[in-house]
Structures are given as C-alpha cells and as structure tokens.
UniProtKB/TrEMBL annotation, chains A, B:
Organism annotation: Aminobacter carboxidus
Superkingdom of the organism of origin: Bacteria
Pfam families reported for this sequence: cNMP_binding, HTH_Crp_2
Protein known as: Crp/Fnr family transcriptional regulator
Domain HTH crp-type: 157-233
PROSITE patterns tied to this protein: HTH_CRP_1, HTH_CRP_2
Length: 241, 241
DNA sequence: GGCGCCGCTTGATCCAGGTCAAGGCGATGC
DNA sequence: GCATCGCCTTGACCTGGATCAAGCGGCGCC
C-alpha cells in the first residue's frame, strides 16, 4: 500500500491521465509496479524554447514524453536549409526505439515540460509489457500517416493552401482557448521562421499569406501570436483538406 | 514431418528467405506451424502495372507482401494533384495494422507479384507471435524515417537535387544489374510522370533534369528506362544527401 | 505501309514564390 | 528618453520551375 501511495503522490499519475486522454504516450500501458520502477529513473525537465533535446548526431540514450509545450523535429541540409518533419504535442512520445542514432534533431519550439527516462529501462519494459510496445507501434503508425499527409502538402499544395493547412493543424492540436460554432482561438506555438521551415516556404511568403487570410476576413491575429479563426469550414476549404 | 514437407514444397519459404534478406517482411517471424496456418489463407497474385491494390476509400481487409516489382503509395487532392508518398520494394509489407481505412492508395508501378492474406488471420498471429508485431513495428519506423527524409527533399531541395536523390534511391533499392567501382546500372521502375509525382515536380522538369545529368556526363539513359550512373559519389553530391 | 497513341523531350513564355531591402513595433537595457 | 535587438510586415524585383505547345520515336493495329 505504501507503494501505491507513492505512485499517487508522484506526478506520474497526472502524466498517465494525460496520456490516456489521447490514447498515446507511454505510461498508460504500464502496471502500477512498472510505473514505480520507471519513476525511479524518471526526470522531469522544464526547458526554454530553442533547447535541443536530441541532436542529429547524438546517440540516443533516453526517451521522453512531452507533458506540455511543442517540440519540433527537424532535418537540416549541409548548407543550412532546414525542414521541420514533425511536431510533437503533449502527450507524444519522443525517441526512436530499436536504433542508436536518430538522424533527426528535436528542439523545443515553445517552453516545454518533458518527462525523460533512460532508453535501457524503457526498452526492458517493452519486452515485459507487450501493451507498451503496441502503444509505441501505434504512435509510429500515426506519425507515419501524418508525415505522408505533409508529403502531399509539401509536394503539391500552393503556399496559400499550406498556410491554411498549418493553421488547421494547430487549431486541432493546440489546446483551443475558445471554441464556438466554427470559431476557434489559439496561440501559435511557432514563429514565422518555424512555420516557414515546416511548410517549405520563406518567412515572407508565410507572412503574406497570413495577411491575405486576415484581409479576406477568415482570421484575426493579435500580437503576431494569438489567432482567431472565424470559420473553420472556410479554412478547411482553403487548405484543401 | 508431412507438415514440414508441405512448407518446403509451397512457395512460402522462398518468400521468407526474401524477407530475411533485408530483415523486413512478415514471414521470418513466424513458426513453421504458423506459416502453414497462414499459407492456408494466402493468395499469390501477379498484377499488371497500374493495378490498384488498395484504394483510398476502401476499408482494408487484407495485407500483402511485395515479392517482386515496385508498388507506389499515393495520395491525391480533390482536384487531382497527386503525390507519391512511398515506394514499396520486395520484401516490403503493405497494409495499415490497427486501422480500418488507409487514406492511401497502393498501386502497382511495375509488374508486381504480391502475396496477400486476410487481415484477420495476420492480426490473430500478431497477438500470438510478439516477434511478428516487432517486425511490423520496425517496418513502420523505417518507413517513418524515409517519409521524413522525403519531407526534407520536398520542402527544401531544388529540382536538380530531387532528381539526383531519386536516382540514388533507385540505385540503392532496385536490384542493381551491374556494379563496379562507383558505376551502377538499373532499370527505372517508374515513368516520368510517376517520378514527377514522387518528387513534387512536373514531367517536363524531371525530363530536363535528366537531360542535364546526361549532358554533364553523370549518367547514360537507354530506351528511357535503363540508367547507368557513372559515379555514384558525384551523384550523391548533386543530391545533397 | 500508314496511322494513332503513348511516353518522352525540347523550346517559349509565364508566374508563384524566392530574394533583397526597407521599415514597423514591442521588449529590453542603459 | 533613446538605442538596440528580435520578430514581423511590406514592397520591388528576380528566377526556378510550371505551363503551353510542338515534335519525335517506338509500338500496336488496321
């Protein structure tokens, strides 16, 4: 009983509830005993925007769950051209199971809270708890679906469609602050430069497209960050979802 | 013993050997008994280029292994713009575990041999053979890595770099016919239109870039299909790998 | 043989989005 | 208050790749 108490006193259960909320994340698949075991090796960190969590060249020795904030996954060409290849929202899992190096950089796009644990202890648990492996498999498949969706966007959509698609993505993922009959407000977790790197565009083009959406009365923007979409259906039509 | 004989007389072991060769595919993870079980529901098909194996809107009720040829995975916008989001070579696995519909179309790019089996029987085996689930998990992670690599290509590379990257991909995956000290020959499994849909370009641009590579003495092309790369290193440099 | 079709190449022109440059504006520091 | 900095917007211009159009060569068919 002491052990159970221990779990509930720790912050793990909160994490797990968050994971359950979207049927992703790691912890929901573990038994209380495994949670306690894992919590021994767990470190929660709060990091500033711009902090590199996993670097391109690193060997990976830890996994992490995103508890709050947004993490961008990037790839960079030798000459510096950069592409964001994924965005991780809470309670997504960060890491590349079954492989030593990642070929991808993970960087905090906003202030981020992560719950990190060593690769070895999670890998051990995967072999013990098949449900856990299944969860990770599911997340990989979801990320694959998303990556392929963005391949279509990057390969075939116009700048206007890309920006609308991006706003649609954030409207779905970022915790909406206000929502009522087709209207929705949220804070952009990314700078214009990040948005450009995500959409394969330049800062200027992103800015112009946002201006256009504003002038067309589809959105309002305050302080360059806070966006209100007046009609999500119209936005979807622009995005060619 | 009759059973074992049965396995070796069927074509399954060949398939399995092919799978093993690249540590992908499904069958290597099964016990002989499971193989026999699976082989009961297995149908081998030889299909023409252009045959749709899985359609966008379909509910998925079967999986398949690619035995020979190349299958293209495509996504299409309502107005017809198309993007190839993945190429499956033997012995890749086709299908989307844990989900009813695919959001992706799978179409034979060349003449293709596939080994198909009903989703239900494989799903049953996944729960019995953890190693099998693990294989599928690995393939999903590999495909994710590839998809993200192509996101970088689609978002940030020039037409010249994209075409070089594509040739490099085929040189690695398509069975090389001749290879010696940096020189390599192969048949393109895709038409110019397919290449364009893969690279987010137009037919004309692909054609012009191939002409440029030819004039620069990096490649030779016969009958629009057969390509010889004279210096793989040089090609890689053009591709900005 | 001749004809049409298909896949590909090549040339001429156009334009969406990139590049370059000049501010605007809020935050931070002196 | 003023200077600096980071982030964003806007305008002017340029260009890589799209679009439009013509033609070529192999192949199947009448």
């Amino acid at each position: 009983m002491a052990i159970r108490q221990d779990i509930h006193n720790s912050e793990i259960p909160a994490l797990c509830r968050a994971c359950e909320a979207r049927h992703r994340g790691v912890c929901g698949a573990l038994t209380p005993e495994q949670l306690v075991e894992l919590s021994r090796h767990t470190t929660k960190r709060k990091v500033e925007p711009g902090t590199v969590l996993v670097s391109d060249s690193d060997t990976i020795d830890s996994y992490a769950n995103v508890l709050a904030g947004v993490v961008k996954l990037t790839k960079t060409l030798p000459d510096g051209r950069q592409q964001i290849v994924g965005l991780q929202f809470a309670p997504d899992f960060i890491g590349r199971p079954f492989k030593q190096e990642s070929s991808i950089t993970a960087e905090a796009a906003t202030a981020v809270r992560v719950c990190a644990f060593p690769k070895t202890s999670l890998d051990r648990m995967i072999s013990q708890a098949p449900e856990l492996g299944h969860r990770l498999h599911l997340q990989a498949l979801n990320e694959l679906d998303e990556a392929r969706y963005w391949m279509l966007t990057l390969g075939r959509k116009t700048a206007a469609e890309r920006v609308a698609s991006f706003l649609h993505l954030i409207a779905r993922h970022g915790d909406p602050e206000a929502e009522s009959e087709g209207e929705i407000s949220f804070d952009l977790p990314l700078t214009r430069a990040d948005i450009a790197d995500f959409l394969g565009l330049t800062i200027e083009t992103v800015s112009r497209q946002l201006t256009k959406l504003r002038k067309d009365g589809l959105i309002a923007v305050e302080n360059n960050r806070h966006v209100t979409v007046f009609d999500v259906d119209k936005l979807e039509r622009r995005a060619n979802i």
